Amino acid sequence: MDLMSLLIAWLVTAVSLYLIALLSPFTGVEINDFKKALISAAVFGIVNALIRPILALIMAPATLILASSFVSFVLNVAMFALAAKLVEGFRLRWGVWSAIIGALALSFINSILFQILAQVGIR
Question: Which is a Pfam family this sequence falls into (predicted)?
Fold first, then answer.
């Protein structure tokens, strides 16, 4: 991944997190402001790059028993919750439920935003 793609992914994730926070009454995810969303997106990316592969390796036996998409979903929720735990100003009001809703919303909104960027020739 080149630097421009990395920056675009970071900004898209920050925008997605901020949108999820704006929907806080429905998601239970709270982020103080867009600056915290930028920090949260960076932490989320670092957590996904460094910790997720280790957890995926540990959960490999579960992947054989359970559907791999379920294990991937559980990892996404865990990474979302860990990022919230590490960033002051990024809160999960309903605990694991907010992490589940937030991880689903992040995947959905990121997909839409990346599709829009692809349509206009960015990325």
Answer: Phage_holin_4_2
